[in-house]
Each structure stands twice: as C-alpha cells, then as structure tokens.
Specification:
Length: 325
C-alpha cells in the first residue's frame, strides 16, 4: 500500500485537510438528512392548507365555473365515446414515460370521495397525497398552487355533488426508472413549486384577474413555456413557445411579433370562444381540447381579462418575466 501511495504521490492529510474532510462529511450528512425529509416527509417543508378552509361555505355554481376554467376534465376524462367524466384512464405522455390520469370521481373507494377539503387542497395546490406522497407534475399543481381557498372549496363541492361516482380504478402508471420513484419529486418541487406570480408586468385589476385565469386555473404556461433539462418551466421565457421537434411543441403566445402581437382583441376573443385562428383555420390537437374544456367557458368579462393579461406579455427589455430568482 505504501508503495501505491508513493507511486501516486499521496501524502498523509495535514491537520487542516483532515478538518476540512470532517466538515464536508458533516455538511454532506446534513444535506442528506434534509433531502430525505424533503422526499419522504413533504409536509415538514410545505405548509399544508389551513384548517380555516373548512369554515368556508361552498358555492357550487362557482365550483362548476372553476371546474371548467381549470380543465380537470381535459386530463381526467378519457375523450372517447362512452367515457365517464373524471373516471381517469387517459394516458398522458411525459418526457419520463406514460402516466395514467387517476379516477377523481367522488367514489369513496376508487376515487376521491372520502377526502377532506384539506386533503383535496393539498393534492391540488402542493401535489401532496393524503398519505404524504408526492404527485408527478403532470398534474399541474405548479400552476394550481395559487388557487384561492374559496375556489378550492367550491371546486370540491362541485365534484362531490355533481359528478357521478365511478367504482373503477384507472390502470396504473408506467414510468421509466428512476422517475418511477416518487420520493425524487420532492427535490424537484423544492426547485419549481412556488406561489409567486410568473410575470412582473401585470398591472391593474382586470389584467390581474386575467393572470389568475391564465397562469393558475387555465395553466396555459404549462404547455406554452419552454422547460429546462430538469423539466422545470424557464420563467424568463414564460409563454414564449416550445419549438417543433421538442417534447410537446406549442406556439409562442406572448404579445410579440413571433406571438400574438398582430391579433386584434376580437381575434383573441373569437379564438378563446371557438378555437378559430385569425387565418380562418381552427386550432387542433391538445389546444382544441383546451378550448372545448376551458376557454370556451370563460364569461365575456373573464375572456376580456385573459386577453388583457396576454397583452401584458411584451418583450420590452428582452424578457416578459420576473427575474429567475
Ligand atoms: C394536465 C393533466 C391534468 C390536469 C389538467 C389535472 N390533472 Fe389531476 N392528475 C393528473 C395526473 C397525471 C395525476 C396523477 C399524478 C401522479 O400519479 O403522481 C393527477 C392526480 C390527481 C389527483 C390525485 C388522485 C389520487 O388518487 O391520488 C387529484 C385529486 C386530482 N388529480 C385532481 C385534479 C383536479 C381537481 C383538477 C382540476 C383542477 C386536475 N386534477 C387537473 C393530471 C391532471
Ligand atoms: C395541453 C397543452 C396546452 C395547454 C394547457 C394550452 N395550450 Fe394553447 N396550444 C397548445 C398547442 C399544442 C397549440 C398548437 C395547436 C395546433 O397545432 O393547432 C396551441 C395553440 C394555442 C394558440 C394559437 C397560437 C397560434 O399562433 O397558432 C393560442 C392563442 C393558445 N394556444 C392559447 C392558450 C391559452 C390562452 C391557454 C390557457 C387557457 C392555452 N393555450 C393552454 C397547447 C396547449
């Protein structure tokens, strides 16, 4: 051994080196413990919903509106003839494999019927299951994270009372290893789950309402923003499109020359209502579903607010978004 040490010109550690060695050992252990907590006990890090949420009175009519504007059915209903609403089964392609949307009907055994309001709130806004596990972000809780308490309560009341329970589990997911390990999502969420608005330029009550409709409920940015290699949305390129050839391409919809600058307000409103583009063609694919499930349900006032919001996404200063940190 000493022969090998000599050949490699290894010297015994100095006192200072030994100290550094021990200190980095401690740091590594601490960060390991921290990672384990994040991964396995998410509620230590993320503040769960306040019990106050139970005292709110549900408004089922608003719940129906929120249900549509947030597009739950776009993913949780299989869009094939005879499919039952929210019964799950739709296969969602993610860069990491196929996920199957679960049954979220009010059935107590196969769906979410037995859940409390708080459990529902934590699943939808924090991606944490009643058992304390992390959901994959294909469930767009990174957008829903800013949903108001009242909207959550109303949405749950609507699903509980107006959607028929379906006593059948949706088939299990099929993710590639290591993404099949849920614990890892904890670290991801630490990086990408926050409750900050995505843009800094939104001013005025109407545009702020539009921001809530587009960023939070409509989760438009989930598809229309490019992502980094870890699958997190790049804030500085918010809504600026995902080029063809990449996973899930979607056009730039910011108020810029490459986006929707040349659209009139009327063209925007017609698009949101029917999916018709300024050139007279209709949008297709996933966006046709978004129009059907989400934007066609906007009230006139809210459609105006959404357009106002998109108008604020200019590229003055080269970016429409808040600083990445
Ligand atoms: C873009 C697709 C998509 C949309 C939109 C969506 N979900 Fe989901 N949802 C999923 C996926 C995928 C999962 C499973 C995640 C996992 O297994 O980690 C899920 C999981 C859930 C769960 C957990 C179910 C369980 O059995 O643990 C609930 C509750 C839920 N969604 C409710 C909703 C509600 C309410 C809405 C509308 C506000 C909604 N989802 C919108 C894709 C979506
Ligand atoms: C599930 C992914 C997805 C979501 C969510 C989504 N979009 Fe789209 N969007 C697309 C795709 C894909 C296209 C291109 C469709 C096509 O090829 O016709 C598109 C096209 C569009 C276009 C047409 C742009 C053009 O220049 O042709 C507009 C405008 C638009 N989306 C607005 C929205 C708004 C507003 C929301 C939120 C309410 C939204 N999208 C949410 C995927 C999505």
């Amino acid at each position: 051994m000493s022969w090998l040490a000599q050949r490699l010109a290894l010297h015994p550690l100095t006192k200072w080196q030994r100290k550094r060695f021990v200190l980095s050992g401690i740091a590594l252990t601490l960060s390991g413990v921290f990672s384990l907590i994040v991964m396995m006990f998410p509620t230590v890090i993320w503040e769960k919903s306040n019990a106050k949420i139970n005292s709110l009175t549900p408004d089922i009519a608003n719940g129906k509106y929120i249900y549509h504007l947030s597009g739950c059915s776009a993913c949780h209903t299989e869009h094939v003839p005879g499919a039952k609403e929210l019964a799950g089964g739709k296969r969602l392609r993610t860069p990491f494999g196929i996920l199957v949307a679960p049954n979220v009907t009010p059935d107590t055994l196969s769906g979410i019927g037995g859940w409390t309001v708080e459990e529902f709130a934590d699943a939808t806004r924090l991606g944490i299951s009643p058992d304390g596990e992390h959901y994959y972000p294909a469930f767009p809780y990174t957008s829903y994270s800013r949903m108001t308490d009242q909207d959550i309560v109303d949405l749950k009341a609507y699903i509980d009372t107006q959607v028929a329970p379906v006593a059948e589990k949706a088939e299990e997911r099929d993710l590639l290893f290591p993404f099949s390990i849920r614990y890892g999502m904890g670290m991801w969420k630490l990086l990408y789950l926050d409750e900050e608005p995505k843009t800094s330029k939104v001013e005025g009550e109407q545009a702020k309402r539009g921001e809530y409709l587009a960023e939070v409920l409509g989760h438009c940015g989930e598809c229309h923003s490019p992502r980094d290699i870890m699958g997190g949305v790049i804030r500085s390129r918010w809504m600026s499109g995902v080029p063809v050839g990449e996973f899930n391409p979607a056009p730039n919809i910011t108020n810029t020359v490459d986006g929707t600058l040349h659209w009139t307000d009327k063209q925007w409103l017609d698009f949101l209502k029917t999916g018709v583009l300024p050139d007279g063609n209709y949008t297709g694919g996933e966006m046709a579903l978004v129009v059907e499930e989400i934007t066609s349900h906007l009230s006139k006032e809210d459609a105006d607010a959404m357009v106002k919001y998109f108008r604020s996404l200019t590229d003055e200063g080269g970016t429409n978004a808040v600083d990445p940190d």
